[in-house]
Amino acid sequence: MTKAVVVGSGPNGLAAALTLAAEGVEVEVLEAADTIGGGTRSSELTVPGVLHDECSGFHPLAVDTAFSRRFDLARHGLRWRWPQIQYAHPLDDGRGAAAWRSVEDTAAQLGSDGRGWRQIFGPLTERFDGIAEDFLRPMLHVPAHPIKLARFGAFSLAPASLLARRWSTDEGRALFAGVAAHALRPFGSPVSSAIGVALGTAAHRYGWPVAEGGSRSIASAMVSLIEEFGGKVQTGVSVSSLQEILPADIVMLDVAPAAAARIVGDRMPSRIARALTRYRHGPGTFKVEFAVHEGVPWTHEESRHAGTVHVGGTFEEIATAEAVVNRGRMPDRPFVLVGQQFLADPTRTAGDIVPVYAYAHVPSGYTGDATGAIEAQIERFAPGFRDRIVARHLRSAIEMEQHNPNYVGGDVVTGANDARQLIFRPRVTLDPYTLGVPGVYLCSAATPPGAGAHGMCGYNAAQSALRRRRGEQ
Asked: Where are its TM segments located (predicted)?
């Protein structure tokens, strides 16, 4: 029987393991931490009974993929839950904007900017299933839906600062700025619109759901199905060398590129090792988990009903903050993402104490304390927020990497989203999962299609391994 060892139990490592196990491969997953899940871990970090997602909290690209259609994770306990409003963006004086599942409902509240929102996101939403099928694969392939992908690419290739000219009001421009900031790139850089266009369209097509019972439910469901297929998962097992896990017919590495080069060592061709060690990571994140009495008192009403709230003010303010962070400096007013998962999933609360998830974009490896800056940004749009805080749990950029070594310097998206790496991550090749050593593959979020709990990096890597085992190219 073919034997596979998967190093790392993040969503991609587990997706790779599950894909292989379903094909009759004997699979063993080795996880260095004491808890499975990588970026999908959830814990009671503040108050007993209040459940916090430790990294990934919302999963717009996990609902309908080749992987999710292949495996019935609902049978193993995974339930998706949606907030009333997918994301919102408060501005000063109680103003703001919000994204509903409906393009029309979203456009209707944007006034004069509604037409521009409808023109971009309406056609993309209608065609997004085909578009997603193509961009959830390596970029170097013959597209299944070339015309649909071309329209998506026309908007995605533009700098965010250029695409934002489609809107003239503070509300319309800010609503786009919030999703564009997920790229952690300067708004004037090429393809800095890509992540925002993808996530904005996904909000209308699939919504931004959470997993009932915390993101850990995603990992738990996958492990349950892996074990049903006869696979095994071990925690507390660290792997530093390929020698420690051989012999194995297939090795899947759910690790950062430089870590993969260290594990494989001299067996890896030098040109590939150089490419992996030169792989670029982006800015970091500083995360604060809040336990809050009765939630955040946003002055913008729609933000009180939104699963995600983008906090940073106007488009220009966020653009400045992202530029400063990418130059390695900490802005006075950073972009802050606030998660209110409890609105879709009340099981995470304890009475009137709710979990509020917040992180700021900070320079890579930032050693300072961003707690005050995060709280000040939220307080700006929700006066009285500080008075409702019952408890906090902090995790700095350095601690993010200690908690999950894939997050180098606190980079939770596992790689800078510059133009080259968006198209050719982690290196320029037709099969970006291979590492130049027979049977050894990289399957982390450093491979296409990138960050998220969709599992498609692991699924794609496993498919590559299975094709090669069958003698296909």
From this structure: none
Residue 223 included in any domain? yes
Number of domains into which the chain is organized:
1
- Residue 54 contacts residue 11 (beta carbons within 8 Å): no
Which residues, in sequence order, are bridge partners of residue 3? 26
Residue with tokens 């491969």: 25
> Would residue 409 count as lying in a domain?
no
- Report the distance separating Cα 338 and Cα 297, nearest Å: 13
CB 225 within 8 A of CB 73: yes
Task: Name the residue range of residue 430's domain.
Answer: 3-42+60-79+211-279+414-469
**pLDDT tens string 278-293:** 999 999 999 999 999 9
pLDDT, position 150 = 76
Q: Of 418, 399, 140, give the one whose Cα is nearest residue 280.
A: 418
Structure tokens at 302: 């729609």
User: Which amino acid would we find at residue 246?
Assistant: L
Rounded Cα distance, 72 and 78, in Å: 9
The answer for residues whose C-beta is within 8 angstroms of residue 436's C-beta and 6 or more apart is 268, 269, 271, 272
Question: CA-CA distance, 320 to 333, in Å (whole number)?
Answer: 9
Pair of tokens at residue 392 = 């906090």
> Is residue 367 a part of any domain in this protein?
no
Give me the residue label for tokens 């997920």.
182
Contact present, 292 and 353 (Cβ < 8 Å): yes
Beta strands 284-293 and 306-311, pairing class: unpaired
CA–CA gap between residue 359 and residue 395 (Å, rounded): 9
What CATH number is attached to the domain comprising 32? 3.50.50.60
Does this model's pTM top 0.85? yes
Question: 61 in helix, strand or coil?
Answer: coil
The DSSP secondary-structure symbol of 382 reads S
In a domain, 372, yes or no: no
Q: State how far the Cα of 212 lies from the Cα of 43, in Å rounded to an integer.
A: 13
Antiparallel, parallel or unpaired: β 42-43 and 3-7: unpaired
Q: What pLDDT sits at residue 142?
A: 56
- Residue 13 contacts residue 6 (beta carbons within 8 Å): yes
